[in-house]
Automatic annotation (TrEMBL):
Family, similarity comment: Belongs to the AHA1 family.
Species this protein is from: Hyphomicrobium album
Keywords: Methyltransferase, Transferase
Domain Activator of Hsp90 ATPase homologue 1/2-like C-terminal: residue ranges: 12-146
Highest classification ranks of the organism: Bacteria, Pseudomonadati, Pseudomonadota, Alphaproteobacteria, Hyphomicrobiales
Keyword Membrane carried by entry: no
Protein's name in the database: Vanillate O-demethylase oxidoreductase VanB
CDD domains assigned to the protein according to its UniProt record, in alphabetical order: SRPBCC_CalC_Aha1-like_5
Pfam families assigned: AHSA1
Record-level GO BP terms: methylation
GO molecular function, one term: methyltransferase activity
């Protein structure tokens, strides 16, 4: 198992459109399926209730690390933290980085989630497996979102 997940997708939308879908908390919530309570601010926590069927009991909490307009958006979180009675706060979070590059047809979006080697061994493989599949789905979700809104 690797210590990171990396996914890329060519989006048929300009960088400015993809950037808005990533960093406007309402748009992010629409495609990511989470009802966030407020905007993303570097250095601050942002959270909300997951709306994805079967995971409505999960509260997503991220800490925004960097917002470099139309280039980089990153946050830390506890991957696959889905058990309501487990305190994940003592674990080292993973880092999620979205980078955008203009292409002749739109935007190359890359997401890298790193730091799985720091997740406790008893849940590392499951967190990696679930997020590997989750990022596949989220890349399709953002593609649909920016296509629909274009």
């Amino acid at each position: 198992m690797s210590d990171h997940i990396e996914k890329t997708i060519d989006l048929k939308a300009p960088v400015s459109r993809v950037w808005k879908a990533l960093t406007d908390y309402r748009e992010f919530g629409a495609w990511f399926r989470v009802k966030l309570e407020g905007p993303f601010v570097a250095g601050k926590a942002s959270g909300g209730q997951i709306t994805y069927p079967g995971y409505e009991h999960v509260r997503m909490q991220v800490v925004v690390q960097k917002i470099e307009p139309e280039r980089l958006f990153s946050f830390t979180w506890h991957p696959y933290a889905v058990e309501p009675d487990v305190d994940y706060s003592k674990e080292t979070p993973t880092l999620v980085e979205f980078t955008l590059e203009p292409t002749p047809t739109g935007t190359l979006l890359r997401v890298v989630e790193s730091g799985f080697d720091k997740i406790p061994k008893h849940r590392r493989d499951e967190a990696f497996r679930m997020n590997e599949g989750g990022w596949e789905e989220q890349m399709r979700n953002i593609a649909r979102h920016v296509r629909k809104a274009a």
